Amino acid sequence: MRYVVGYQPDQRGADAVALAVAIARAQGATLDLMLVLGEDAPYIAANPDGPRVHPEEQRTLTAQRQALALVPADVEATFHVRHGHSFAATLIEAAVEFEAALIVVGAASNGLFKRYTVGSVANALLHASPVPVALAPRGYHRTDPVERITAFIGRREGADAAVDVALIAAGRRNVPLRFVSLVELDERGDSGENINAAHRHANTVLTEAARRLPAGHEASVEVAHGRTLEEAVDSLDWLEGELVIIGSSRLAQKNQLFLGSTANKVLRALPVPMVVVPRDYERAESHPLG
Fold first, then answer.
1. CA-CA distance, 136 to 146, in Å (whole number)?
2. Residue range 253-282: mean pLDDT, rounded
3. Is the pLDDT of residue 204 over 90?
4. Cα–Cα distance, 170 to 178 (Å, whole number)
5. What are residue 36's phi and psi, to 5 degrees?
6. 94 contacts 82 by C-beta, under 8 angstroms
7. Which helix (H) or strand (E) holds 35?
8. How many CB atoms are located within 10 Å of the residue 95 CB?
9. Who's near 211: CB < 8 A, 6+ residues apart?
10. How confident is the model over 151-162, as a mean pLDDT?
11. In terms of CB atoms within 10 Å, which of 25, 101, 267, 289 comes out highest?
């Protein structure tokens, strides 16, 4: 299993590598660290021959050394240099070529620690990637294996693919799985039925999960509510090694991502990494998240 990691020699690149290591660890997954240069960049070879090195080549070799130094010895990683007009498109091309299970990138931040705003690369990926995309919040440096997976559930189209991926990933890693249903309270105070419906649906999902997970596997469900979705997310407890999985919008084309309004609100409030799964992700059984 392979994960494509979007790398640049900056904080976002380091965040992406750390998250990729955390997800890949103990699963035998390998990392393909991708440095994408502009199409007019003079650098071509990753290992130029001869003693004379062009300044651009030197910068790239330095980036290679820095990137690989971020990967611990128990995780296999390969550094690649590619030219492309679009960073996101080049990552997608590599993911398709390598039959990767995941693309990992660092998300831009609005300045609050471990809060997101989606930058241009992540935004492009979230509109076009045929495989799940993992977003690392700013300052993410934890490389220990994932401790728990939280899957946001709902009744809209696209949620089932995320639940499938979460079930497979949690089962293979033998980590607890938590299902969360978010309810935005009605300003008029008439939210009782919405909360009850969320509980009924969440318990149905949990019952199905218990049937599919190995015997004795820890699984739980929570219904979080607040005046806003952000407030609902803030009310949840989070582990340091948490990973959130969410489905993409029903507006997405089949097998592609699109971050809808609900996921965008969740993203802004999350203090932990998030994986967005394409609608109707057909390869979930054969290419889960490790």
1. 13
2. 70
3. no
4. 10
5. -105, 120
6. yes
7. strand 30-37
8. 24
9. none
10. 71
11. 289
Nearest to 118 by CA among 130, 105, 129, 131: 105
Are 246 and 126 spatial neighbours (Cβ–Cβ below 8 Å)? no
pLDDT at 6 over 90: yes
> Are the CB atoms for 6 and 136 separated by under 8 Å?
no
Residue with tokens 């980590």: 175
Q: Is the pLDDT of residue 113 over 50?
A: no
Q: How confident is the model at residue 35 (pLDDT cuts 50, 70, 90)?
A: very high
Cβ contacts of residue 114 below 8 Å, gap of 6+?
Answer: 137, 138, 139, 140, 271, 272
For 125, the enclosing helix (H) or strand (E) is helix 120-128
**Residue 132 CB neighbours (<10 A):** 30
- Cα angle: 45, vertex 50, 51; to 5 degrees: 115
CA pair distance 120, 114, nearest whole angstrom: 18
SS3 for 65?
A: helix
The torsion angles phi and psi of 254, rounded to 5 degrees, stand at -55, 135
In tens, the pLDDT along 174-192 reads: 899 999 888 776 555 555 6
Q: Tell me the C-alpha distance between 49 and 28, whole Å.
A: 33
